[in-house]
Amino acid sequence: MGSNYVILGDMSFDLSPELRQRFGVDGYFKGHLSTPEADDIEGRLDLSDAELDEFYASLKANKNKYKTAAAGVDEIVLYFETFLQQGNDILALSISSKLSTTFNIMERAKERACEKYPERKVIIVDTLKFSVAIGLLTVRACEFRAMGYSLEQNAEKLDEIKKTLHQMGSVDDLFWVASKGRISHAKAFFGTIAGIKSMGDFDADGLVTALAKVSGYEKVYKTIIEYIKKTIKSASEQIVFVAHSARREQAEILASEIRAKIKPKEVIVCNIYPMSGINAGPGLLAAYYFGTEITDLKYEKDVINEIIKNL
Q1: What are the tens digits of pLDDT across the range 220-258?
Q2: What CATH code is assigned to 5-35+69-161?
Q3: Is 307 in a helix, a strand, or coil?
Q4: 13, 205, 255, 270: which has the fewest C-beta neighbours closer than 10 Å?
């Protein structure tokens, strides 16, 4: 089985330089930001904790003054060519096509690049996910490659497992995920009362659906742990990611709880960088893991309601 291909992620995958190096991620497609200070700047995935704190403070104070934009076709063609001209095929993971034009832009860039390099292959996977969920899929892609999966086998496996990737966590304010189209509007409900946390999981299209509300982080931790217990599969064989936007202390507590009570192979705490943070807002705390196949969320809602009833 051949493995002469590179793995490229979407910038919104929120993998730090250290994680990209550790798992062998070959690169990512850069996106663009508009901020109160500048109309078009390139996003970064190497911000320090202090820089991220400053960013989220500004985002909270300027709710409508930050925007994101995907890379253009020409940019992606040039990026593809840097690998194709070296004799590499490409496996690229895109943010959900339900949330962004990135997947369609990548497909157009692929057509142009492959016309120039007809002997090479490019496969683009629509992850139907965003943020750290894409990061976790990218890590798995790198692991599959290391196991000897061919380009085609890897893409097929990703299409299979993306349906089982859960995000369970809380947000303080649904303004960002709703206004940026990251949540199912029909099921979004707003609650910005101090201490009230909306709990949600992905639906089959990669949108987050708010399933319940709880008060305070102690109940958030308990709800996440119990939800994971009921939906995770082969916990001891997988890495669980815990991601946060300006909730570092809570992320470390949740990670410690997952290590003690779920006992996965590893728990990794991740920052959510600006490209995703603009669309998630400050106050997100979530665990990402593989488990039961995502349904229409009736099962998932029943699970979380039963958990909350017994808190």
Answers
A1: 999 999 999 999 999 999 999 999 999 999 999 999 999
A2: 3.40.50.10440
A3: helix
A4: 205
